[in-house]
Amino acid sequence: MGNEQGINGMSTHANSNLGFRPMRSADMLRALQIISEYDEDDAYDARETYEESIEGQFVLTEQEKVIGVVGAKLIENTDRAYGMSWTYLQKSDRRTGKGTLMLEWMLEWLKEHEARKVFVQASDYHDPTIGDIYFDAREAYKRVGFMQELRQPDFYAPGEAMIVYGLHLETKQFAAPEEQEADILITDVDEIPETNDAFWVAWEVADPGQGSKPIDLEKVVREVRSWGGRAIYMAFPSDLSCVAPLMSAARFRMAGRLLDYYEDDVDEVHYRLDVLS
Description:
277 residues, alpha+beta, nine-stranded mixed β-sheet, Aminopeptidase, 24% helix, five-stranded mixed β-sheet
């Protein structure tokens, strides 16, 4: 890439005035301005994230001015899988290669921190006036090596899908994980942030025989329907043997998977129930 110094300090591009460094508190307002150029709801959620912690958040600068933001966070209960967040470049710098460079620097930081795999989530939202506002971002992800692994139609709202891309950062270690003899216990149901009437069911592992039954999921469906919900989503490790029969009995359908999410050869399997269908 022709950059100098380490990511933990300041990286600069040899042939430009571009730099990449950790976000500072003084950068927050400018970062939120950039995000709000695309999505005010994202800017609102990003503010909450930044106010809690800016660890793992970075900025792209040009002549010391912040022109882009990107971040990544270790996903809990995984073997060094990271999720990227709030990846935006000011609109005036779209299609200049600067966004791709920012992603390359972010991936370099992840490799330095021994990340095994990284995931990034995107939308295919079409603005009635300007069209597909995230097209350039999705193309940039693909340019640096991300591959589409999951697409959930009508996730954020009718007509707006969620697309998840994944990228291995180290050689996959093939394994044959044993299936877990355990049940799952429903713990909460809540609307998914940034969606219109889509709900997520939280769960925890329970001892065999102590988990939720199809009737418990039917109660969840009735409750979500009473709230005006459109769809319900759940996701599980692929090595939980109890999941498939439970989902089938509750009429959830498999909606895709994120490969090697928890660890190599243990995927995250996604299920969906369209409440209004």
